[in-house]
Structure formats: structure tokens, C-alpha cells
Protein 1
Amino acid sequence: MRTDSNPIGAMVEQFLATAYIAHHYRVPAVGWESENQPGLRHRGHAFHKKYYVPSNLVMRVGDR
């Protein structure tokens, strides 16, 4: 909301989308609104439930 209600925020958002056309920095850290639709949420939960399990845990123990 802060970006949408602030003219400078909207300008910066548009500038970054244009400046980083071929770079991954153009994607916002939280993703695009269209990626956060309720219809896609169940796929995210299924992915998490499948891959974020103790059998996929990797731990490093050491002094550095």
C-alpha cells in the first residue's frame, strides 16, 4: 500500500521494473500480487508439506 499511495514509490517501482528487464532484481522480494492468489496457495502448501520434512534436513556441525 505504501508504494501505491506514494507517487515516488510508484515511480521507483516502475523504474526498477524497466531498469532490470533482464535481471532478477526486477522481481519484488515478496513476489507479484498475481502470484499470491488464493488458487495458488494450496500448491505452495503441498510443496512445503512434501519437501520440508525431517528426512530432507541437512545440518552442519563445526566451529566455523
Protein 2
Amino acid sequence: MSVVDYPSVGAALAKQIAAENDSLPGYVSIAPTRGFGRGGFGPGFLGPKYAPLVVAGGNGMVSPRPAAGASGYPELTVDAIKPPSSISDNQAAHRLEMWKVLEDGFLNNHASASPNAHRTVYDNALRMIHSEAASAFDLSKEPAKVREKYGKGVFGQGCLLARRLVEMGVPFIEVSLSTSMTGGFGWDTHANNFDSVKALSTELDAGWASLMSDLSDRGLLERTTIVWMGEFGRTPRINGAAGRDHFPKAWSCVLAGGGIAGGQAYGRTSKDGTTIEENPVGVTDVLATLCSAMGVAPETENASNTGRPIKIVEGDPIKKLLS
């Protein structure tokens, strides 16, 4: 039996709208929590060419405040953007030259899909590293007042980085708020819900509001679609540990910016939040709406690793939310 390796929506959308020879990748993921499902961030059957460039990714889990630099802000390092500190620029140049010789020799005799994909990934990385566009990742270029406005946590600084990447034309960027600066395990608030959500919301508000206002001030918001959401909601009732448990029946998300008809609430639950009373919406419908807002038909198909045509998303755009 063949198993289809589905791509993330970020990879699928980046494939549709990224320019072939851009210096920066089409998909950047900032501080993802990949310990519980790396496939949710990966390119799947689209291949490594469409994999995200991971910033502050670590090995699965990311600290809410990675080691701060001299500025006191977290260092949002980019995976594999530069050689280890023990390798000099001269050594790196010689190693790169040797790699190209060996790679060219191998490809002359093994010009199949996997080796060509490997070469493509490396060529894209090298093009980014040696371009001026790579300076977008250097947040020290931002005024101290601006950095302070976004907040000193990973999420806030990730939103600032997202604004810089939007300015450079990166088509798909995601920023994760997986855990707060005060600790705890993110929004999975089975206990101590109120204190945890307060801490998380403080970081969320600073980063998200600053991103929206900066994009608006720069004339970029009308062509940048923003979606804020999690994977499911929390129970309307508080449990015995002052927490809220998993509740996939109903929760909120926010759409804003380019392609979105804002200023409205769509859908409604009962007063106690336990049932949906108006305009039920599935996750696939939300993702289809995101695709449509970005100018990509959600029914666009890609050939899977098993040869099946697979749509980007099996859902219906919510027409009332589209401008």
C-alpha cells in the first residue's frame, strides 16, 4: 500500500506564488514547534525544493527566549545559513569548491530526481547566503524603539522578522507562538489557564498589533493576507486544575489584510460556547479562503508521490469573507 506524503499548506502555496529565481525562499517558518509532527511544516511530496527555511527552529522544541545577544533580544538564528564558528570563510570557500566538483561528477552519471533535488536545495541556499537579501534576517538593523514595540520574546521578534521578509517579497511566512516567556507549554492550558493565557496574550498582542500597523504604514497590508489561528479550541468550562481541555468543536481565528473583507464576525456559537448555532465552518474552508485571498485556486492540483492528483485543499472558500 502506498502512503501519500501530504505537503503543508505553506509549501503548497509557496510553490504557486514564489518566483523561480528569488534570492530568498518561498516559505519561511519562524520558531515552529516541530516535536509533535514535523510533517505539518514539511513539503511532503512536493520535495525539498519547497521545504521551509526554518528560523529559531532548534531540534523540535524551541525555548521561549533563546540565548540573548548583546542587545538583550533573542537570537533568531537561521538553520544552515552560515558555517559553524570553527570554520573560517576561507575554509568554507574551499569546501564549497570541493563539493561542487564532487556534485558535478556525481550528477553526470546519476541525473535522476533525488540528486537533482539535492543540488537545487544547495544552489538555492547558496544564492540566498550570498545575496543582499539575506540581510533581512539581521534584526540589529532595526531601531531599538521598533524592536521594543514588538516585544522581547521570540514571537514578537519573529513578527518583526516577518515584516522584514514581507518587504523583501517572501510569499509565505509563519510565526509560531508555542510557549510564553514565562514558561509553560503554550496554549495547551490543561492547568493554570488564566495566568498562562494572560502571558501568551501579552506577547501575542504586542507582536501581532505591531506587525499589522507596520504593514499598514508601509502600504503593504492590502497585499499581505494574515491568518491567526491554532489547531483547535479549549473547552468553555474550566476543569478541576483551573485549566481548559481540548475542544475541537468550535474556536476562533482571524483573517485580515489583502483579499479579506474585514470588520465582521462570521459564525456564532451558543451563549455557553458548547454548540455552533450559525454558519459552521470547517478547517478546510478556512484554508480554502486563505488560498483564494492570496489569489490561488484551492482546487489547484499537484501530482503526489503515488501519481495521484491532489488539490491544495478540499474545501470551499467563505465568499462573504473575501473582498
Protein 3
Amino acid sequence: MSQFNHVGITDWEKHVYLDPAFNRPSELFCLQGSCQKAQDKLKWRPTVGFEELVRMMVDADLARLRAVPKTGA
């Protein structure tokens, strides 16, 4: 998973836990989207690739966390 690689974590499975208690009974296992209709009808083209988008989102989360004041014990 590239978002973990971006912050130097190579074994992401050590950091991810899926709690079955939060699964919805009608949850679809795999959801996918396509921008093909926007490309065809609107002549729209994405300017940011998936990997770049992941890096942008992780960097934004890290910046937000750095901005939170740390409380001392």
C-alpha cells in the first residue's frame, strides 16, 4: 500500500485491523468508480494520478497532525 510506503512503513499489515463488528450486513466487498463518462461527455481528463493523490492526502494528514499542539504528561 503506497500510503504506508510514503511514510516509511513497509509492513502495513502490522498497522491495520479490520473489526468485523463494523461491517454492515449489506456491505459490498469491492466498490469501483470510473471517470470514463466524464471523459467521454465532458472531454475531462484527470490531472492527478492515483499515486500522487495518495501522497497528497497522506501529506495533508501529516501536516494537520503536526499542527495539533502536543500535550505533555
